[in-house]
Amino acid sequence: MRVKVQMPSGEMITGFLLTIILLSPVVAQDLCKESKDGFKVRISLKTALGNDAYEWNESEKFLFRSTLAYAMRKKTGEDTYNIENILVCNDTKRVSFIFVVTLPADPTQLIPKEEVERAVRQSKHRINNAFLLSDMTLEFVGVPPTLAVPIQYNTPPWLIVFGVVIGIVAVGIVALLMSTVSKRRRAKAKDAGFDQDGDDEGIVKENGTALSGLNKKDGVYNQAFSNDERFTKL
Amino acid sequence: MSKDVRPSWDNPMQFVLACVSYAVGLGNVWRFPYLCQMHGGGGFLIPYLLMLLLEGIPLFCMELAIGQKMRLGSIGAWSSISPYLSGLGVASVITSLYLCLYYNVINAWSFWYLFHSFQSVLLWAECPVNSNRTGFVEECAVASPTQFFFYRETLNISSSMEETGGGLHMGQALCLVLAWVIVYLFIVRGVKSTGVVVYFTATFPYVVLIIYLIRGVTLHGAWNGVKYMFTPKLEQLANPQTWINAATQIFFSLGLGFGSLIAFSSYNHHHNDFEKQAIAVSLINSGTSIFASVVTFAIYGFKATFNYESCLERNRLLLLNTFDLSEETISVENVTAWISQLNSTHPDTFSTITDKIQDCSLEAELDTAVEGTGLAFIVYSEAIKNMPVPQLWSVLYFLMLLLLGMGSMLGNVTAIITPLADIKVLSRTLSNETINGLVCLLCLLLGLGFTSPSGNYWFTIFNEYAATLSLLFIVFIEVISVCYVYGLKRFEKDIEDMLGHRPHWYLKLMWALVSPLLLLCLFIFYIINYIQGGAPTYQAWDKHMGKSVVKEYPIYGQVFIALLLVSSLSCVPIAALYAFCRRKTRSAVREEHSNTNTAE
């Protein structure tokens, strides 16, 4: 017995497709809202940019979805991710929303949270820059920020400054000590010179001692003949 | 041969600048503003200036007179006054030695911070990132970046004094070496080199202070701090602690009792007018304290306002995030209004964040009074990192701290090397430069101990006990011996010989009566405080909690404190006893001689 199988008519097919198309955003919204694989995103435009803040509208949301698709592509290496795979819902005036990522092959299946997190962390810097924001102002709630690696120096700069300063000081000390030593040598040479000359040079002798005070420019301080002003001014 | 002639200052201005450089030190910047804040703001000036008149100027004048008359360092000067008093000079030298040991460590820290200011991002502005780059290093996140930089990167502090070992902090050790090398450079030729250096060390800090004053009062919120400081709370004058703190601050700020003033004035000409100079230096010192506290309070005000506004901002963000409101709805000004409004309209949602909402209060921020190294290296760094072009301000500030510290070090080291140079035996065998070098080397080697992880706790011991009680005792004995052992009349005649007129009756009254009484009261108060305070405690840094906790000193720490005090206090009676015994044996020998002579 032949079973009569009724082929779907063109009308039925169009109807069916229409339902799917109309239903899919609803389905998509359900996927987004009810899912535990979604991430909440918070954007603080005014805090980051002040007067230069742009308005958060559909175009910006479009950019967000495309950057996330880019992040997924970069992480997985598959070029199949598209903007339709990023679903956004729960928009608030704060400018915060929830997003989920669907599998490119099967739009009803979601990518698990951990994978999305890894993708976001890998490309966070690029995502931030696309929006002129930073880790503080573009928050993915639950994703720890990837902080920039601090600058590594070969020689810490403080050592360089230290080396310069201690070099200058060492030169100063050596110069001072050399000048003291040379002064003393000159003084000793003059002393020796006086002793060697003897009586012939007409050295004034006072009570039998050579006037060795001639080689000290300061002389001996004799308080009785002090020429200091009685009251030294301040 | 040239050692027979005592070197002298090139002109009296060098002497005045040396005294200013010595007296104006770190205490003017980090102790006086704290006292001002604790004891009623502008009202504190009343006991402060009163104590300046009662003890500051007279005692300063007296020390200068002694040095100028005796023309010897502290040991020689006091031995000349009375052979039983040589111990007083020795006590001064020992106290100066203790001070030199730990004071230069502060200069080493200033060098460390100064060198680290030459970076595009100041290291104490941000926390370092932890190993997997997910957040900040835990200790830094719990405390603040400035505290982390000071306690971990600069000091590498251990969590208690008992944890010895851990080697030396190489960076600190290098900076300490540099500090001592520079001190040696400044004093290598005695007053000849010191006299040139003080032109710079005495004047440049004022340049920086003026620049900071202008920068400070133009900062946002600075006026809050200055207003807070100068509103006098006159009820604090009834608190005896206020008067005691004023007296001790004047006393320690002028640097009396270390022997530095005696050493400096021993290089003066005989007829130098030290009276006017003493008044000038004391007034400059107090004026600088007041000036520095205006700057400090401007900075405080800026920092407090910054913290207060950050607190409000955090609350605002919390409200925005919890209630998903648009950013324009809540601004920093109406945060508090919104808090109460949201609490009434949405109490259940609000209850989730009640513990996270912080109480922001400008008063509370201004009330946090800090003194000492905490103020200089933590609070100021925090304020500086929030200024525009922080590197410039950081360099200026730490350069100023360095000059203040180095200027005081000049006086401290001169107090040690002058009596040493007076000892004939030493000065004949070694040249002056060698003696000075050996003193610096010894202090450097001993001071390296402060660069170990537990070193900062030993530093605190020295800071609190090495030069407090002993100085009060020394100066008390000084005044008593000048007035009653040497004789006030004799002292008057000496001054008349030097100055051409007798000292003012006011000075004589202070020397004979008021200052000794005041010093005795302070000394007794300190002793009572020590006894009543129980076991001495210190602040240890807990790296897990990110703040300081109070701990008791271990037994060997307390023994060391006692040793510090006893070693300087006991010099006076021991030397007096020694002189007494020598006199007895000498007179006994003389009697024997005369007996044998008469017998012949």
TrEMBL record, chain A:
TM helices/strands, residue ranges: 158-178
Species assigned in the record: Danio rerio
Phosphoprotein found in the keyword field: yes
Domain of life: Eukaryota
Chain ranges of the Collectrin-like domain: 35-234
Keyword line: Cell membrane, Glycoprotein, Membrane, Phosphoprotein, Signal, Transmembrane, Transmembrane helix
Gene this chain is encoded by: cltrn
Protein name: Collectrin precursor
Gene Ontology cellular-component annotations: plasma membrane
GO biological-process terms attached to the record: positive regulation of amino acid transport
Signal peptide coordinates: 1-28
Membrane topology: Single-pass type I membrane protein
Cellular location(s): Cell membrane
From TrEMBL, chain B:
Record protein name field: Sodium- and chloride-dependent transporter XTRP3 isoform X1
Protein's gene: slc6a20
